[in-house]
Amino acid sequence: MNKKVNVIGCGLAGAEATYQLAKRGIFVDVFEMKPTKFSPAHSSSNFAEIVCSNSFKSEDLATASGCLKAELKELDSLILKCAEQAKVPAGSALAVDRDKFSELVTKEILSLSNVKVHYGEVAKLDLSVPTIVATGPLTSDALSGEIKQILGSDNLHFYDASAPIIDADSLDMTKTFKAGRYGKGDSDYINCFISKEEYYSFVDELVGAERVELHDFEKKEIFEGCMPIEVMASRGKDTLRFGPLRPVGLELDDGTRPFAVVQLRKESNVNNLYNMVGFQTNLKFGEQKRVFSMIPALKNADFVKYGVMHRNSFICAPKFLNPDYSVREIPNLYIAGQLSGVEGYMESTASGLVAGVALAHKILGKTLAFLPKTTIIGAISNYISTADEKHFQPMNANFGILPALDEKIKDKSAKKQAYSLRAIHDIKEYKESLC
């Protein structure tokens, strides 16, 4: 096979994939739309431009984001290396000088002798050449149309309206009951009951909670497609009781109907994670924690993923992707970054790393196993490739997607440390198999 790859997009995932391919002797043609054309959110001509927060989250090993960084360091991540060089004071978080960071990434990519950068928009994919598409949440209309044609028009989403996801171990199960509405199904839902007084207090706080300010280019598209729960609640105090919190068809153990019910639906293949049904929201993360914790069963809930509503192009990953981000029916096509269904800076970086390493091994004729599911990187790639197609939503790093530990650990901090130590041990073993 010709040792040549096309990488479309040079954001975090694209730059990482390019670096991993180039260091293994693969020639890479990088196609970057900027500065010929900019998305509504971008303004710099440099690669890996950071347009939102300059924080890459915690470096603490007792957090999933810290564990992810430790794994990326073991696998020689270019993006992590540049982030550490551009670091600014931010406590236990890794925050960067965004201009310096982008300049460093750009300099590194342009210095690679077997990388050629082409500037301009890509509207058609040449799949006779192995290709990694990593064009991010604001993929151009032309390329979006090409992807829709390749995968099918119903499999590319243009906004993310995701509800929060909770670790079931953190629920107060005495405030819940399992049942399907009208007794149908296999009682797959956890129902969190709420009294009249609790419900109206919750609605008052929900309506007044602080919201994220959307970009102008996001507003029309998002709100036409999905109603945030706080907007729904503002239309009348009982609106939610006739919508996502309706108690009709559900009974408590004593045969009475609760005043209101929040339903939690299991996330596919991950026993411990549950989605708050109908709770797509535009509240700030701190406000989600404060207000949603007013639901009695969620008083001490561990939110492994908060709800989001923003412009975000992503495919229905479980329908198409393998855990190495290759498309199942199109061997020459890989999709990485937020377009693949991962969420977050370092998560996008990890997807680019996995795709780049996997494709390099394939081109070099070397076999490579998927990353262990006990690692954050492996667990994310496993999640997006095996989740429920019908309810798929993008996923970030969290311990809830990892397999359970061999031993039961009650202390939360010690448990998280144990997850990290196991992951780092397994990633070190895995990297011995890399060329």
Strand order of the largest sheet: 6-2-1-7-17-16
List the uncertain runs.
Answer: none
Q: What structural class do you assign from the helix and strand content? A: alpha+beta
**What is the CA–CA distance across the termini?**
17 Å
Give the DSSP E fraction (strand runs of 2 or more residues): 15-25%
The ordered H/E elements are EHEEHHEEHEEHEEEEHHHEEHEEHEEHHH
- Corresponding CATH superfamily of the largest domain: FAD/NAD(P)-binding domain
Gross morphology is globular
How many domains make up the 3D coordinates? 2
Portion of residues within helices: 25-40%
| Mean model confidence by pLDDT | 91
Q: Could you name the CATH topology of the largest domain?
A: FAD/NAD(P)-binding domain
Q: Tally the helices: what do you get?
A: 13
Query: What's the CATH architecture of the largest domain?
Result: 3-Layer(bba) Sandwich
CATH class of the largest domain: Alpha Beta
Please state the CA-atom Rg, rounded to the nearest Å.
22 Å
Give a short account of the largest sheet.
6 strands, mixed
The tally of beta strands, per DSSP, is 17
